[in-house]
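Run: sequence + pyridoxal-5'-phosphate -> complex structure.
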Amino acid sequence: MPATQTRDVAPASRLENVHYAIRDLACVADEVAKKGHKILPLNIGDPLNFDFETPAHMIEAVYKAMRDGKNGYAPSTGIKEAVDAIRAEAARKGITNIQDAFVTSGVSESVDICLTALLNPGENFLTPSPDYPLYSAVLAKLDIELNTYALNEDDAWQPDLLDVSRKITPQTRGIVLINPNNPTGAVCSRRMLESVAELARRHNLVVFSDEIYDKLILDKDQHISMASVAPDVPVVTFGGLSKNYLAPGWRIGWAVISGESAATRAYVEAVNRLLRSRLCASHPEQYAIKPALEGPQDHLPKVLAKLRSRRDLTVKWCNSTPRVSCVAPRGAFYAFPRLDIPDPDEVFVKELIVKKRVMVVHGSGFGQKPGTKHFRIVFLPDEQTLTKAYASIAELLRERYP
Ligand code: PLP
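>> structure
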């Protein structure tokens, strides 16, 4: 019998550009954990890793749905009561001209579907730098070349409009705005949103407005939805249960498409073709959407009080520690401090895991401005845990760079 010839299973070459630094670091952490050490995860934005709980009435709603036999497939766009609640919530945020709303497996799936339904080979879509890496990963999967615009650290991480204008080409189809922002915690002003809308009108762009943290505003700012200031511009607004409603494991997100009906009709139909082809989002969990959006909101003041205190502690530490500085985050639960060190930030972050068992994410994992160095902190843990983690980071900085 001839010897069996083994052949390599070659992966698609476009996947070489798919990286997700937030989870890619887990390999280094696994090695440390195998030696019996416990690692403090300041890398993943999961409130359930810390002292936050999914509101009880949402859990009850899912439990009831399961008991009531809502365990089959759901409609592709989501159950009616959830879609109605999402539309009503969008209307409360001042969004008019709503052309479609649908439920997906987290905002992650909405983004994947909405980019896939839009982009042709050779086209591009503007993403921020630094970026939440979901966007660049999906674009790489679609074989779309990255076209990034700068968030300006000297302007509290607001989009650099001049850079946005410079980067728009005839092949540019749209722009991603993450507001409140991951990884920087920046919140966009009305004026900024109006300026982006103006650029979108002039260059026929679709705006993807990722508003998954819209209820986690830490200062006196009011969150303003991009779509509410530009009803004539095609905008896809993303939201979900993962962050505002402390249920990331349920994988429930949604998107609302707004703009002129004639202009968005074909796009909405393309999105719906993809929604049908992947069947549906998790069914019983969708029964928590209406209770979340329309039921008691009393978890929010408690969450915000904790986040404000932890944000303040983080910023104070950053700005009193040699080689670290930070723009104060105004929303979400991330800070993106700048590092003044000679080594690449990835080297420092890996050493921090190995030597101090604290896990943050290197700024290069978010496609930061070349030549700058940062790390992203998730400031969800309690004050005592954060204080300990920051002491360890300061210690490593002193040891490495005396
Ligand atoms: N968009 C942003 C800006 C995020 O930070 C995250 C998760 O951290 C997501 C989307 C993904 O959210 P989901 O859990 O709904 O897929």
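>> summary
Residues 165 and 199 are 8 Å apart (CA to CA). The radius of gyration is 22 Å.
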